[in-house]
Amino acid sequence: MEDYGFLSFNFLDIGQPNADVPFYLTTVSKDFEAAYRDNSFVAVDPYVSRARRTNTPFTWSGLVAPEYSGKRKPGVIRLYEAVRDFRYNEGYIVPFHFHDPLGRACSALILLIWADTVQKFRFLISERRYELHLICIYWAQRVIDVVAREHRGKGPQFHPADKSERSLLSDRERDVLTWAGRGKTVADTADILGISENTVEGYFKTIYSKLNVLNKTHAVAKAIYGDLIDI
């Protein structure tokens, strides 16, 4: 992520709204990490709240700071001020929702923090947002796998597919997903495979169900990680 120009990243478990200090991994400065934790900013963070309700990545600038009157500053205003104090200019947030092998619903987010100019950030996102989305989801799968190995039985576990899992998707479903992983739209895939767009959409619905995912990017990332497709 540093190669893309980001200053730091955060991985945060957002599946337990009542947790005072949810599980996280971060490379932000120790001072900001302490300020965020000690002020319980996770309870008022609007980006965390939004990430719980969507699968679509979004930027910090996509949310407007609320106005307030009075002497007491709301927690969200203090959070915004802390972000500005540390000169974090923008952020790219990738929500991540899935079911583990036991069927339990899990949610997390990945935040990539930007400290360079906003203009450079906007250009990067316009050119590389799909690439970043795929990388983040794939990385999240890996993190979950590592944590699961360290805490056996306490969390979701992902692992490369065995022979039975490789047969989970049909040949045509793998074709559809492979072309999606190469950046092709539904219309492009329909033309390439000589089938209708409705048929392609039908394949995706089946794929989502089989892989326990909610969108195309997550399906591609999980299929690559599970050795179901090769792009």
Notes on the structure:
The structure is a single chain. This protein has 231 residues and is α+β, with helices and mostly antiparallel strands. The chain folds into 2 domains: 8-150, Beta-Lactamase, CATH 3.30.450.80; 163-225, Arc Repressor Mutant, subunit A (Orthogonal Bundle). Helices cover 46% and strands 13% of the residues. It has a 5-stranded antiparallel β-sheet with strand order 2-1-5-4-3. Strand 4 (90-99) and strand 5 form a beta hairpin. The longest helix is centred in the middle third of the chain and has 33 residues, at 118-150. The protein is elongated.
- Domain tally: 2
Oligomerization: single chain
The H-and-E topology, N to C, reads as: EEHHEHEEHHHHHH
Category by helix and strand content: alpha+beta
Unreliable runs, pLDDT <50, ≥5 residues? 155-165
Q: What is the arithmetic mean of pLDDT?
A: 84
The CATH homologous superfamily of the largest domain is named Transcription factor LuxR-like, autoinducer-binding domain
SS strand fraction: 5-15%
Task: Characterize the largest beta sheet: strand count, sense, and whether it forms a barrel.
Answer: 5 strands, antiparallel
**Tally of strands:** 5
- Tell me the span between the first and last alpha carbons: 21 Å
CATH topology of the largest domain: Beta-Lactamase
Given this structure, which CATH class of the largest domain is correct? Alpha Beta
